[in-house]
Amino acid sequence: MNKKLLIGIVVLFVGLIIAAAISGIPAFYTLGFVVPIIVLWIYFIWMVRKKKAKIFPDQMEPKIAERRFKMLKVFLLVAGISLAVGIVGVVVHNVIYALSEIEESVSFAIGLLGLMAFVIGNIGGLVIFLKGRRKTT
Predict the structure, then answer these.
(1) How many folded domains does the chain comprise?
(2) Fewer CB in a 10 Å sphere around the end CB: N or C, the chain?
(3) 28 lies in some domain
(4) Does any domain span residue 56?
(5) Does residue 120 form part of some domain?
(6) Phi-psi category of residue 91: left, alpha or beta, with phi > 0 → left and psi -120 to 50 → alpha
(7) Residue 26: its pLDDT value, please?
């Protein structure tokens, strides 16, 4: 990956987080924290789809690189499924509340847990990706 592009992405993430912290608008907190994580997930999916995109350096042993690649795919799959579950859980909660005016907490808790699992899956994928990118001597 181009080093300038990576630096640009990091600066964008930090800028969004700082902007979210400065503004008092709760919706901007979501944009400041969730949008960069979704962008990171999309980037990882794009890298995995290319498969031969030199995700890991050539000096790494092929068996280790293949194992890390499989772990990265598992983390991305879990993150994608948990994102879908989180969104569906929150939408179901809002629909039930709109139709019956009863506060229903089970689907809301499922939605929040799904979104937290999405964040954890992305962090796990990022750790595997960055550990794999380190050059071993």
Answers:
(1) 1
(2) C
(3) no
(4) yes
(5) yes
(6) alpha
(7) 59
Range of the domain at 76: 34-133
- The reported pLDDT for the residue numbered 81 is 93
Q: Is the pLDDT at 7 greater than 90, yes or no?
A: no
What string of H, E and C letters represents the secondary structure of the chain?
A: CCHHHHHHHHHHHHHHHHHHHHCCCHHHHHHHHHHHHHHHHHHHHHHHHHCCCCCCCCCCCHHHHHHHHHHHHHHHHHHHHHHHHHHHHHHHHHHHHHHHCCCCCHHHHHHHHHHHHHHHHHHHHHHHHHHHHCCCC
pLDDT above 70 covers a percentage of the chain that reads: 66
